[in-house]
Design goal:
Strand content: under 5%
Structural class: mainly alpha
Radius of gyration: 15 Å
Number of helices: 2
Helix content: over 70%
Distance between the termini: 24 Å
Largest sheet: none
Length: 56
Amino acid sequence: MAIFLFLLLVAVILGLIGALVEGMFYLLIIAILLVVADVAFIATRRSRRSHRRHLR
């Protein structure tokens, strides 16, 4: 869970820098991709946990 929160914080910081600094739009794109990857990671992790509980 700590990794999720850390990556979310990094994405927010990169997004703010990318949105506010002229010529740094690519940082905003990287931040959006990082959030999408982070949410996908957590979703797969939760689905694996719930799947293991049903097997037992």
